[in-house]
Amino acid sequence: MNNGSTGQMVDRTSLDSVVIRFCGDSGDGVQLAGGQFTDTAAHFGNDFATFPDYPAEIRAPRGTTFGVSGFQVQFSSLDIYTPGEAVDAMVAMNPAGFKVNIDDITPGGIVIVNEDEFTKGNLAKCGYVDDYNPLDDEALTTRFTLIRVPMNRLTRESAEGTEEGVKVVDRCRNMFALGIVYWLYDRPLDATVRFLENTFTKGKGKPEIAKLNIDALKAGYFFGETAEFPSQFRIPPAKQSPGTYRRINGNEATVLGLITAAQKAGKEITYASYPITPASNILHGFSKQKNFGIKTFQAEDEISAICAAIGASFAGDIGVTGTSGPGLALKSEALGLAVMFELPLIVVNVQRAGPATGMPTKTEQADLFQALFGRPGESPCIVLAPGDPGDCFDMAIEAVRLAIRHMSPVVLLTDAYIGNGAEPWRVPNVDDIEPIEVSHPTADSYAEGEFMSYARDENTLARPWALPGTPGLEHRMGSLEKDANTGEVSYDPMNHEIMVRARAEKVARAVDTIPDIKIAGAETGDVLVLGWGSTRGTITTVVDSLQKSGRSISSAHLRYLNPMPANLEQVLKGFKTIIIPEINLGQLSMLIRSKFLIDTVSINMIRGRPMSVKELTENIEEVMDR
After folding, report:
1. Pair 225, 8: CB distance under 8 Å
2. Closest by alpha carbon to 395, among 587, 387, 328, 36?
3. Residue boundaries of the structural domains of the chain
4. pTM score, two decimals?
5. Residue range 237-267, pLDDT digits in tens
6. Which residues pair with 348 in a beta bridge?
7. 519-624 carries CATH number 3.40.50.920
8. pLDDT, tens digit, 9 for 90 and up, residues 524-542
9. Where are the alpha helices (DSSP H) in 291-390?
């Protein structure tokens, strides 16, 4: 596509990586603009990582700091593992977005603002008083390159001749801003133009809306050509392994992984959930996949959702329910029921900041104890945790495999950062993924009266998955303790202890098929940084940097939290100091200490955001220098 270059001579600076942040009111379309820029970076072949940041309020008063939405993306010609910290370029659609984010701009960075929104009224809404306008404050603006753009006026000019109203036209300002950024970083418009045509022309039958957005996009690009930017920047493609790549976030990868697992098991999925931030997109994703035999059920509450999923597993489907921390608490009794039923149930917990409602759109890792212990009685579950968005695909498949093999509920712990954040994902060859073995007993396997619903496999201790309605295999189910063989109600004290120990041992035996934990760096040494979940990108970035500076430091990442890998104790004992960074107050650290009697150093940052590379580096160096 010809972008309409005027032939202006521009200095082009080549960079390894850039961090861009779009910010503004929650209705300004910054998530869409950021997502489209990310898609273009993916088409171009860059490595990238994103951090969408949503306001907690559904609709905060427009123009206030409470309603600021942000989208950050780091794109690079090198391998990267985080969305970055210091922002090289920011687009602020209003004063509130400017105020909330301006302190994150790197000295000398570029700040593009919609100056039409910096009115006296809007400045007051976000806390600027006494006629103060930050755009006129030289003490502030000399720290960065400020580009003032009358986006409202120029977007309306790009729509000259349309019959649509001003409100409709103004919704295209995000595309005007995106066009500027495309010019600034020498990116083509093609992918976004196709997206707009497919969305509005083919998808919604509104070609006039597609045209308005495309015209605004091009107008922003042409403005970039004529504006006095210090330079135009180019970030070359990254070197990637051969294959087909796509942009994927953690919630999307979880959906695809569970669907793939169901296909490999020859099963259908019943997904039952109650909408909750930040897990709701999993329900949306499943609802579009009926062609794979997916059944979705939006329940009236969290309890009915998990009970419906348990019923689906009892009937022979793969029962899945998704939630966040508050919902997992509500599901706790029914999850204990699934432990007693010994059925293959998958519970996806996209963790968020708590306690209670907490900060619904912010990330945290504080549900580990709840996943492990948050149920009445001795109720062990298998617990897994992917480390990045793409890893959600693999660990979702693993969750189904382990749930079926061991007839056990599996809790899959992601979080808001992983669930909403995106990265390039190499699309796997489905034929390379191993089948998942499923066995349902039939009456032919038993003489009359011999079937025992809780007789266990001698290797896995799993009970048989007998489908209701199978002649000769009728059996009772309920929430009271089971006889160790027949499954009938039993109050016998010794039987209860046998069942408690059997359920615990069954989960423990899953260690036989989970992989050993791997070490990045030397296998023994001074310091090992141990992480789990979404801290993987930050830990990898920090440890790589410290290793290059000559430090004796290695890292390892836990994806299996119950049971833990068989070689973990041996790995830990190979290092003098174990550092465990977490976005909680030290839950994994407490587990490691109690399980292995090994001392650990906790580094904890609980701010609703991904862990800071700069601060983690400083904290680790402080520990190493003691």
Report:
1. yes
2. 387
3. 12-231, 246-432, 439-513, 519-624
4. 0.94
5. 998 888 889 999 999 999 999 999 999 999 9
6. 322, 412
7. yes
8. 999 999 999 999 999 999 9
9. 302-315, 325-330, 332-341, 368-373
